[in-house]
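Why do we bother with a discrete structure alphabet at all? Because it lets us treat a fold like text: something you can write down, compare, and reason about line by line. To make this less abstract, here is a complete entry for Phorbol-ester/DAG-type domain-containing protein. Read it the way you would read a sentence in a foreign language you are learning: slowly, and without expecting to understand everything at once.
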Amino acid sequence: MDLSDDEPANVTDDPTPHDDFDLHSVLANLSTEAPTFEKILRASTKFHDSHRYLINQFLLEPTMMRKKMNLLFAKHISTVAWGLHPEAFMRTQITPEQSGELSRSLVKTMNTTDGAVKKDFRPWRFVISTDEKSPTEYVTMTGCTRNSSIISEASSLTKSERALFLAILEEMMCEDGTCKMSWIHSIIQKEPHKITGPKCDEFMTRMARQKYFTLFNPDIVEIAPRTIVELEPWLRATMPGSLKICEFCRRIISRPIYTAECGKCHSLSHFNCFKNATVLSKQDRMECSKCNETLTLDEVNDQIVIKRTSGVARVPSRNLRQSTSIRARSEDKSDNDDNDVVAKIEVDSDEEPGPSRRVPKARPQVRPSKRAIISSDSDAN
């Protein structure tokens, strides 16, 4: 088929819109003068395009390092707003204290309007936190933390996945902030968190990608800062008597191994909070806020080594079952006529674990009383 008649005459290629584009020549014309920290800090106090750029980055990465947030903001405002060379901001000298001040200013600006809490609804909230086992600070973008259902809304979880998530969270809080994949695979066989193995692996991968969990190794799952930030109100409401609270920041302790513990009153504080307090006070020791016992930084480091070796963990659920058994035994002493009934209650309470509990072993000394009850019931019939 001949299309020569349909072709327009004098066809020429479209000219290049900007001729030859030389990036190096463009960058050579930009100023390389480093902006001062005071100028960057002043810019961080007023919400503008650089803050919107940060929010867009948080949509892609809900939890990022605090230093990374500072670098993204400084680079965007120096290149886009001030027209400086992309590497100019790297020449700005900032101390660790100034870096923390810039982070707090950015978080406050994105959370508030002119220093006041936003009256209009905004679907974000930024919180500075740590993973409790390292001094690295993270900034987490979350929704309204007053409602724990934000987890299912933000992550598009099904009913079974949400039940599994809360069961894993409760297990982590009962242990040392970690959970074994073998335990997770054992509980997904029962309701209300019954899902298939491949679906479970896909769920865990998605939650790790969204920074709710950290896959430490193929068999260990660690709790992530985003989980504590978003579900702190839910944890305080459901486990009020079992949570450990830091004496410095008054936040939940999810990794009890990495804590400073008073040897007298056994009050706990985050290792990072304790270390920051020693830096601010310019000394290597601090006094307990409850009993005035002195605790040095070297002693805290030794405590962490011992706890990591012995695997110290706090188990509120087990303590709860223990208190139930003690209360039942006290009733047994006060009422001799109901001995067998109380013994039966103790056995049943230990053999009916919740959905997120490991199945405990029945106590040998209680089993005979149960068999006696069964035999007495059969004789009566």
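What the structure line is telling us, in plain words: Residues 316-334 form the longest helix (19 residues). The chain has four domains: 28-122, 155-238, 259-310, 331-374.
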